[in-house]
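name: query_chain
kind: protein
chains: 1
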Amino acid sequence: MEGGNFFRNSQIIVLGICIAAATIISSMILSGGFLKVMKFTREQISVTGSATKEIRSDYIVWRGEFTRREADLKTAYKELQEDLAKVKAYLASKGVKEQEIIISQVGTETVYKKNEKGNDTNDIQGYLLTQAVEIRSNNVDTIDRVSREATALIDLGVQFMSPAPEYFYTRLDELKVEMLAKATRNAKERADSMVKATGNKIGFMRSARMGVFQITPVTSTDVSDWGLNDTTSLDKKVMAVVSVSFAIE
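structure:
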């Protein structure tokens, strides 16, 4: 009996040792796995990448207006119609297509006589008629030149006034895809350069967030948190920014 008890006690001791060993080994494995998860979670680098490109506008919008002021409304309207014919003939002679021209309706303003205090009276002094013309075209160089030479209409007796044209780029969606790809590659190059200094290397991309996308004149150094979209310059500079996080291996 005593031998049997001894044998059973020995089995219990061996079983206890095995359980203890298994517990220790399991703890080590779990601990190692936990450390790997922590390493996976914590070891990363976040960088900002950017890309720039110069582009030339491919669409132009130019507006102008001409006026006539006369004591008689009918006379003013007749003269304004004559001015419109001169404007259309001038634009056609410069290569502007008829379908590119938008003519607005005539605006009419009644002009009243002033009293000695400079206030309007009820007496009509005359009428001021205004008509606007707008040109929208892909023929940027032609319209740009016409906008600078349009003062020649004044020599034809037309009271013509116009601000500078607006310049646009119509393929922005395609350009954004291209620029964001370049900015992301730039971010990867920066991250790789920084991590190599520590003897490590970057892994897969964890996250990416698009930053500002702005269009400015070529010589501009302006930056906005909300982005910029310049329409004043024919030649523009585009900049895209992205924020990217990479794992560190």
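note: The chain is about 40% helix and 35% strand.
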